[in-house]
Amino acid sequence: MSDTQVLIAGGGPVGLAASIEARLAGLDVTVAEPRDGPIDKACGEGLMPGALPELARLGVDPAGMPIAGIAYSDGRRRVEHRFDGGPGRGVRRTELHRALRARADDLGVRFHEGRIDAVHQRAGFVEAVGLRADWLLGADGLHSAVAREVGLALPTPRARRRFGQRRHYAIAPWSEFVEVLWTPAGEIYLTPVGDDTVGVALLARRGEHFDDALAASPELAARLRGAAPASDLRGAGPLRQRTKGRVAGRVLLVGDASGYVDALTGEGLRIGFAQARAAVAALVHGDPNAYEAAWERETRDFRRLTGGLVRLAASPLRGAVVPVASRLPGVFAGAVERLAR
Asked: What is the chain's mean pLDDT, rounded?
């Protein structure tokens, strides 16, 4: 007899969303997570418009700041697009975690303090952290132990290895957009997450120093001069992770654990929430292999657009990204809208 119908590895946003999905579907759920309290992560913290209906459907409405759209700038040119279907939202990762955890608690999700680093599949069930489950969802992030354990992880490509860094500053937002600064050091994301807080995230190659990258942008350096840091500097990466599949027996991978291209387009959470919904639907119907096709469908635009943009950003044509976008605002708007859905 199983201890739980669904065991979820990882209590980050996607793992918690999956736990809520499973409880709403009437399944018994346990989340295995070694960390206590709100979980933070180095990320841009902008929820695309398509993520908000996913959260609302789960009964989750985190506090944050409206985001009108996306703007690209290289210090000389600027192009922006206002979301057609309404705003997104800038949300501190810790606030998002608190809102999801509160909803999971309300629905009766159980939590097990532990990290899943060994997985054993048997006939009709799977075992991990001393628990027997009908199904295991691996939502344990970029460096997923579950993906490695079940043989789905592939080596991280050494080419174009990029990392994320993020710090908040105590300053009133000066823009209603997520401002993306294309600099020689990397892309800097400026996201309003509160009335008096702006998140600053850097996507760059290993070795780029956060403060040096910010100082190299005169406009940004001037804006942040005198602003006190509102959080510690955090890092994450390498961002690109590959898997050869998302399903292995009774194990399904969701979120970053299922494979990740890059954070450049800022829609990782929207994709992760959609994956959680599709994975739970596959379990409810007793057809885990249906999830593979659903994963391909849900992530197709993200993988194509983000992959192409990352290749361009790493090429000698990097400096042409903003000039071309400013000359072709319709193309820029179309790409943003496809990712915002």
From this structure: 91
